[in-house]
Structures are given as structure tokens and as C-alpha cells.
Design a protein that fits this description.
The protein is an all-alpha fold. The chain has five helices and no strands.
């Protein structure tokens, strides 16, 4: 081996050791904090988004605060529904992570089992 190969091997070993020592799985606190921030941002985004849409539509149709009030009420309802879905781990407003529970997945026949029944 050449000196460059030796240096490369030592560098890769040092990088692997550094990653092994520094990379840690996230703690339970950071997961909970992340979920709390996510819930707050979803609530804030839905309420602000519906409020801005109501304000723009009110300005366009010249209906004073009527549409704004309706949209803000609908936004609050949607925000609490998203918070409920998040707390029950039913999915999110953006995607549908973990939509099926483990029980449903266990009862569902696999692809091979359904082929055997035919």
C-alpha cells in the first residue's frame, strides 16, 4: 500500500470513530418538543391562512368582516381537528403517516396470502 492509501484508511477510521461517538439518537424530550412545535405551527398556519383568505375575499366582495369571521371560525375548527389527529397519531395535515394501526395491518392478509385464496 502507498502512503496515500494508508492515510485514506486512517482518515476513514477516524471519521467512523467520530460519527460513532457524536451521533446519538434523539431523546424523548426532543421528540416531544418537536411534536409540540409541529402542533403549534399547524394550528398557527391554518388559522392565519384561513384569516388571510377571509380578509382577501372580504376585500374583493366588499362584505366587511363577514367572510373573515366565517373563515376564521372554520380555520379554528380545522386547527383543532388537525391537533386531534396529531394527538391520536392518525396522520397529519400534510401526509398520512401511520394511518393504519398495527391491528389493522395485522388483520390485513399479505399479498401472497390473498393470491393463495384465489
Amino acid at each position: 500500500m502507498t502512503k496515500l492509501d494508508d492515510l485514506d484508511a486512517k482518515l476513514k477510521a477516524a471519521q467512523a470513530q467520530y460519527i460513532k461517538e457524536t451521533v446519538r439518537p434523539p431523546s424523548a424530550y426532543s421528540k416531544e418538543m418537536s411534536q409540540g412545535i409541529r402542533a403549534f405551527m399547524e394550528m398557527l398556519g391554518v388559522i392565519l391562512g384561513s384569516g388571510i383568505m377571509g380578509w382577501v375575499l372580504d376585500d374583493y366582495f366588499e362584505t366587511a368582516p363577514t367572510i373573515l369571521i366565517i373563515f376564521v371560525i372554520l380555520g379554528i375548527a380545522a386547527a383543532f381537528f388537525n391537533l386531534y389527529k396529531l394527538s391520536q397519531n392518525l396522520g397529519t395535515a400534510i401526509g398520512s403517516n401511520n394511518l393504519q394501526s398495527e391491528e389493522k395491518a395485522a388483520r390485513k392478509p399479505s399479498q401472497n396470502e390473498s393470491d393463495l385464496e384465489d
